[in-house]
Every structure is written in structure tokens, then in C-alpha cells.
Hints:
With 164 residues, the protein is mainly alpha-helical. The chain has one domain (2-158). It contains seven helices and no strands. The protein has helices spanning 2-19, 38-50, 53-71, 77-89, 91-105, 108-118, 121-158. Helix 3 packs antiparallel against helix 4 (77-89).
Amino acid sequence: MRIAVILLGAILVGATPALAQTPNATAGSALAEKKVDPAKEKSIRRLLELTNASKTMIDGMKVGLDAQKKAQPNIPDVFWEEFIKRVTANMDEFITMLVGVHDRHFTKEQIDQMVAFFETPLGKMMAEKQPAIALETMSVAERWGMKMGMQVMMELTEKGLLTP
Length: 164
């Protein structure tokens, strides 16, 4: 799971320069297919701000990078340091990409309702706790996935379909 976050981050960082050329799309990008209504885009950006989307992404990437550093000691620390700096400096490009994702999945009215919720005390508490919950969820998912993989490997080995 952590590797997936790193790969996602690497892909996003590599893909985001094209998105920086216009407010929310550029010719040839996935978001160029449909320009987001400016009022809806403003609401989506507010929602992403209220839900700490940037912090959640960066925190998740940092956790994943720690695992990658250990798994790939031949890659110098300067790469990982510069990668996080680049991601942090270009986070608005990632947010712009998320605007398109949210635009495709929610109406403006739905976004406005979510914004209203995340402006309440309960919504603020949920948004505050979400980055830690996401990190903990990644850890739980990683352990669970390893358990499932071991069970499958053992069963297939017992059936003679895998050799140890």
C-alpha cells in the first residue's frame, strides 16, 4: 500500500507540470475534456482545503518514502528530500487534478453540502483527524494484505501449486 502511495505521488508529480498551464486544464490532459464551472471549482477547492487534502497526501507520501528509503538504500537521501520538496512546492497542481476528479463525481450542490458539513464543529474534527486515520488505515491495510498473501501462498503450497 505504501508503495502504491509513492508510485501515485511519483506519477502525479511527473504529470502535474502540464496541468499548471491553465487554471484547471490544458490541451491534451484528462481535465481538458471539460472545463470546470468557476463557481463549482471554487467550492471544490474550499472542500479540499477544509478536508486537508494536501496534508493528507504529503503525510502519506512521507510514510511511504520512509519505507522506500529502507527498501532501496542505493538511492541517495537527496533524491527523497528533493522529491518531497517538489511535491510540496507543486501541491496546487495536485489539488487542480483533484478538482477535476471531484467535478466528475459530485454536483455543485453536493460539494456545497459537504463544505457546509466540514465547516461544522463535527466536520472540522473529522477533517483534523482524517490524515492520521488515513495513515493508520494504510498501515492496517498493509498488514492485512500481507496476512492474506501469506494465507494464499500457504494454501497454494499445500495444494502443490507453488513451491517454497
